[in-house]
Amino acid sequence: MIKNSVIALVTATALLGAAAPAMANSLTGVSDNDFNEDYVLAELQHQGINASSVEEWGSSYYIAFVTDETGAQKMLYLDPDSLKVVR
Where are the beta strands (DSSP E) in 37-72? Predict the structure, then answer.
């Protein structure tokens, strides 16, 4: 009886130890992607695009929220590699 309890406890501890690194990212908000909003904003502003914020939209696009010369708000779809407008 004690032997079975010890084996079960060791197995449970091993499983929890293996799951801990996977859970750490979701608990701390750290992810494996390399999207950096501040960097993308700086690059867009360097290109003359008046972006106020930018978001990652799936793995295919970045979306920049831009104020044009008339003061209107627009969304620009950007290629994540080149930061060129795609639509």
Answer: 51-57, 61-67
Positive or negative: CA dihedral 6, 7, 8, 9: positive
pLDDT at 63: 95
Q: Which residue has the tokens 């994540």?
A: 80
For the entire predicted model, the pTM comes to: 0.58
Look at the alpha carbons of 40, 46, 49, 50 in this order and tell me if their dihedral is positive or negative: positive
| Residues in Cβ contact with 46 at an 8 Å cutoff, skipping those fewer than 6 apart | none
Side by side, the strands of the sheet bearing 51-57 are 51-57, 61-67, 73-78
pLDDT tens digits, 50-80: 999 999 998 889 999 999 889 999 999 999 9
